[in-house]
Every structure is written in structure tokens, then in C-alpha cells.
Design goal:
By secondary structure, the chain is mainly alpha-helical. The chain is about 80% helix and about 0% strand. The longest helix is centred in the middle third of the chain and has 30 residues. It is globular, with a radius of gyration of 20 Å. It starts with a helix and ends in a 5-residue tail after the last helix.
Length: about 400
């Protein structure tokens, strides 16, 4: 009799999911991912001994991860969101174990597991957010989520590189496994799938190619994808090539970790950007952010390997403006997607992350065959200028 009474009391003690719920989950996920974000390219470079080889490795892994993302709606339909989210957390831990092997095969499989886990977490968390957060509150909730992830993305890269430099590859990956374990416990504690007021998605999973066609047919979804792709291209470039710049120029791996951590510390301004966006309009702020990124990237490209510390400083400036896109950019998708096709469109939308890890390294591998590392940042600057023009030209003024 006592056991029959205890469970419903515990169930109703759980607060309804809100902005803080998802900020907490994303903050823990950020720690789990950030702790080795700067270690991965350094470890890959030490294995391959080639800047171009690192770019090719990231390209191959991103290409494999893309196929998993497109089939994610089928997995959600078959196993439900809670189990796909759980699998995503487990994959982060499995990836950490594979990195410990410290071989090329372990590096490839570890990176692939990490990409697959990140994909599962991103898609399912977005679905939960759309179920529980009103569209009018999305901008505020997203800026809060970005701000709460600041601690993980600020401390994580430096901590990971410090542990890697001092104690070897095992130490930073044990941190990943620890935070992944806490994340899993918190996720099941929140019982998101058991909210009786929210009916789980029942939409039939369709062919991934048909989902792509449906997504591309909607102009607002296309624009939302470009915005997300543009900002994600910067972060991919920043996480991989900023540490490489420090290592190649002799500044050291710890300097690379500190640079990435400092850039992630800019997430503190996510709440500020959210307030500015509500006051002046997301369209105006996102346009400004893209063009400001272009300017700072061009300066970083000019400095390049000749003045790596100066280049790093301007990359930090680029990160500040990229945070504005982190805080405001996803609102374009969350406000445009139809409720009845959220799982399918979320999976296609999520390909921005896979392609941002696939296409830039592929392009950079060609660029690096002829130019130095500075050319990487200049190439990205050309693209962010194009993104800024698209936002100014096509994003509704009401945003």
C-alpha cells in the first residue's frame, strides 16, 4: 500500500518543464561536449601530423553523421524521444571511451559517436522545447539556454586541454563520462515524456528525402537553416582552427584551449543579445551580427600565422557577434515550423550542424593546399557576408 502512494506524490512533485529545465539540461550537455572540444583537433593533429589531414578527417566524420541525422525521425517514431535522448547521452560517453584508445581508428569512431550523440540530443531537445515553450517566449528561453551553457563552454575547453597536457588522454574523457552520467540522471528526473498535458508526437515518420523536399519548399525554413548554418560554420572553424593556429605557430596547446574558452565565455552576452533583439528586432540584430563577423574575420585572416595572438583577439570579437546568432537565430525556425511536422523538419533543420562540420573542413582542405591558416578565416568571412545579405533581404521585418 505504501508503494502505491509514494509514486504519484513523487511524480507531482516534479515541476512542469520550462525554460530553466531545458537550460539545465543543455548546460550539462555543454560540459560533457566542451570538455574535449579543444582536445579532439589537437589529438587528431598529433595522430595525423597534418593540418590538411585533420580537415579531411572532420569531413569524413561529418558525412557519416549526416545520414544518421536524416533518419532520426524514424528512430524517434520507433523508440520514442526519451530513449533517443538517452542513447544520445550514452553515445557521448562511448565516444569518450573510444578517444582513450588514442589510435586513428579510435579517433574516427569516437568522433562519429560524438556526432551521432549530439544529433540525437539536439533534435529531441528541440522537440521538447517546442512542446513546452510558447512561440512568444522562445527568444527569451533560447537566450537563457545559451547563457546557462556559458560555464561549460568557458571552463570545459581549457580544463580539457589542461588535463590532456598534464595527465594524458584519459583524464579529460573521464570528465565527459562524469557529466554525461549526471545529464542522464537529470533527464530522467524531469520525466519530460511523462507530462500528461503534452501528448507525445504521433506523426508518421516519412522518407528522409521527402522530408528534405518538404523543408526546401518552405522559404522561411530555408532561411532559418542558412542562419543556423552560417553561425555553426564559425563555431566549427573556431573550435578546430583556432587551437591549430596556436599549436602550429608555437603558442602551445594550452593557449589554444584558453582561446576557445575565452570565446565561449562570450555566451554570457546571450541574455543581453536576447534583450537587444526584442527591442530592436531579431532581423536587424542578426544582420548586424553577420556583417560584424565578416569584418573581424577579415582582420584575423590578415594577421594569420604572422601575428597569431592578434588574430586570436579578433576571433574573440567574432565570437561575441556569433553569440547574437546563437541567442536569436533559432527563433526563425521555431516560429516557422508547423506543429504537425516538427520531428521531420527538426531532423532536416539539424543537418545545418552536420554540414557545418562537413563542408567547411572540405573547403579548407583545398584552401590550405595553397595558403596558410589565415586564409581559412578569410574564406569564412566571405560566406558570413553573404548570410548577412540574405537575412537583411529576406527575413521578415516583424522578426
Amino acid at each position: 500500500m505504501t508503494t502505491q502512494v509514494r509514486h504519484p506524490i513523487w511524480f507531482f512533485a516534479v515541476r512542469p518543464a520550462g525554460a530553466r529545465t531545458f537550460a539545465t539540461l543543455y548546460g550539462l550537455e555543454s560540459f560533457a561536449r566542451a570538455s574535449i572540444s579543444s582536445v579532439i583537433p589537437i589529438q587528431a593533429y598529433e595522430i595525423l601530423h597534418s593540418k590538411q589531414g585533420v580537415s579531411i578527417l572532420y569531413t569524413v566524420v561529418a558525412l557519416l553523421g549526416l545520414s544518421v541525422t536524416l533518419f532520426m525521425p524514424m528512430l524517434i517514431q520507433r523508440f520514442s524521444r526519451r530513449w533517443v535522448y538517452t542513447a544520445g547521452v550514452v553515445l557521448l560517453a562511448v565516444g569518450a571511451l573510444l578517444f582513450i584508445v588514442d589510435t586513428l581508428a579510435g579517433q574516427v569512431l569516437g568522433m562519429l559517436a560524438r556526432v551521432m550523440g549530439s544529433s540525437a540530443l539536439a533534435i529531441t531537445l528541440n522537440l521538447y522545447i517546442m512542446d513546452h515553450i510558447r512561440k512568444t517566449e522562445v527568444m527569451q528561453a533560447e537566450s537563457l539556454r545559451m547563457a546557462w551553457s556559458m560555464l561549460g563552454w568557458t571552463a570545459g575547453p581549457t580544463l580539457g586541454v589542461f588535463l590532456y597536457s598534464r595527465y594524458g588522454i584519459v583524464a579529460p574523457n573521464l570528465v565527459v563520462i562524469g557529466f554525461a552520467s549526471v545529464l542522464l540522471v537529470m533527464f530522467w528526473r524531469y520525466r519530460l515524456s511523462d507530462n500528461a498535458l503534452i501528448r507525445p508526437g504521433k506523426t508518421r515518420a516519412s522518407n528522409p528525402l521527402a522530408n528534405i523536399g518538404r523543408f526546401v519548399a518552405q522559404p522561411r525554413l530555408r532561411l532559418a537553416w542558412v542562419i543556423a548554418f552560417g553561425r555553426s560554420c564559425f563555431w566549427t572553424t573556431f573550435f578546430v582552427y583556432a587551437p591549430l593556429l596556436m599549436v602550429v605557430t608555437g603558442e602551445g596547446s594550452l593557449a589554444g584551449g584558453l582561446l576557445v574558452s575565452a570565446g565561449n565565455a562570450m555566451l554570457f552576452f546571450a541574455v543581453y543579445w536576447g534583450r537587444v533583439g526584442r527591442r530592436y528586432g531579431a532581423r536587424n540584430i542578426m544582420t548586424f551580427a553577420f556583417f560584424a563577423m565578416t569584418a573581424t574575420l577579415f582582420v584575423a585572416a590578415f594577421c594569420g600565422e604572422r601575428f597569431p595572438l592578434v588574430a586570436g583577439f579578433f576571433l574573440l570579437g567574432t565570437a561575441l557577434f556569433a553569440i547574437a546568432l546563437d541567442a536569436l537565430g533559432s527563433t526563425a525556425f521555431l516560429r516557422a515550423v508547423h506543429a504537425y511536422e516538427r520531428p521531420q523538419m527538426s531532423a532536416v533543420y539539424r543537418t545545418y550542424l552536420d554540414l557545418s562540420e562537413l563542408l567547411p573542413p572540405l573547403v579548407y582542405s583545398v584552401v590550405l593546399a595553397f595558403f596558410g591558416l589565415g586564409a581559412v578565416f578569410g574564406t569564412l568571412g566571405v560566406f558570413t557576408a553573404f548570410c548577412g545579405w540574405l537575412v537583411w533581404r529576406y527575413l521578415p521585418k516583424s522578426m
